[in-house]
Input
Amino acid sequence: MKLTGQDIINELQDRREQARLGGGAARIDRQHAAGKLTARERIDVLLDPGSFEETDMFVVHRTRDFGMDGNTIAGDGVVTGSGLIHGQLIYIFSQDFTVFGGSLSAAHASKIVKILKLAIQNGAPVIGLNDSGGARIQEGVDSLGGYADVFLQNVLASGVVPQISVIMGPCAGGAVYSPAMTDFTFMVRGSSYMFVTGPDVVKTVTSEEVTAEELGGADTHTQISSVADGAFDNDLVALAEIRRLIRFLPAHNAAPLPKLPADDDLARTIPALDSLVPEDANSPYDMKELIINVADHSDFFELQADFAKNILTGFIRLNGSPVGVVANQPMVLAGCLDIDSSRKAARFVRFCDAFNIPILTLVDVPGFMPGTAQEYGGIIKHGAKLLFAYAEATVPKVTLITRKAYGGAYDVMSSKHLRGDANYAWPTAEIAVMGAKGAVEILYRSELNDADKIKKRTADYENRFANPFIAAERGFIDDVIIPHNSRFRLIQAFSKLRGKRQQNPPKKFGNIPL
Output
């Protein structure tokens, strides 16, 4: 009997309802019992209400081996589509652990590839919510090929549209490489992990006994490996923070930056900054105080907060517009640059440059970290990554030296010599080859036995070089500014640079020292 129009509509509705159930009520209950939202619930929380439009809802795998013939579920373990966050178009895929453990098949991969291609074509950020057991073993090489197809699109999208990964469950084997190639990766504490091989394989191959949490949990990847940019306590907090992050990012690499109402007084003075730097040059202070004070409404979205804490990275707004911040942190290792901080900052600078986000650099750096561990670990090459990133960047770059800017670290931290556009210093700034004590011990080695002479030489060196004026006389510092006026001066500087046009010599790409 031929189906009527209403019959067809009813069948469509039944099919949609069945697809929305994923792996079924029992598996959904298990997902909730584990403290996790389902794939569709996550999308509903992340996107603006009612904005999600799903694609490929009825796609199923085509495997016939290992009992998979006829064992199909619409959607095949991943929900894909587009929607809005704060009114901005977003492409999204959300893996469904209730369907075959979220494992990736060729069909599953093709859905993700389609979303990535649409994001590139239409110039919109793409967000991946990862919750997958890895490759679908029943598909063998087809699954591996699917992963490679996804990886290729991640690479092609890099620098074109922002890519954000949120690990919200297991992420193992080939599944970890796609998030690793995206711009930002976040995890959920207690329910997500990432590793190339799991604890059982590790034990078999290396005899190490380690838990999944120790091997690839949120603490491991935010504090030790730096694979993740941040971790959150549960799904709801993670998704809310992703919504917050999106407001700092352009839709694509040629799009204007998202601007919020400039309702924080741009000329606001900050008297507390006049006493932020201690009189004792060796005393620490918290550089976050400066960042929070100059930012609109004290809003600072910090990235990799638990890794390489001697440098701070993240986003603020100045007069409504997004700005990327890189800042030495005197509270940790005196703000020295080391291997980890150089890598952390270099990657962030390159992201900002790729998406035309201006960069504010706050400097208090006594130099590069000395020692055999750093030298053997390749501090020369890793430090050069940060130097390369700053030198290559053509976005507006404003630098403020608050205290120490010593040696090669002065050069690296967005100095005028690396095409810094506006370079300022506070009166407390010390710009020199090294600190007074070390310099005097080298310059006056023959007088080291005479404490009075050394004391006098040290005081003389401090008077001559422990200030910003020599650099200002050379034109390496554009102005020495009063700390409490910093917000206004920084906003002014970025405002003047709004029309900046600068290009590097024609080439395929530079060979950054990886």
Notes: The chain has three domains: 5-246, 271-429+467-496, 435-466. The chain has a mean pLDDT of 91. Residues 106-122 form the longest helix (17 residues).
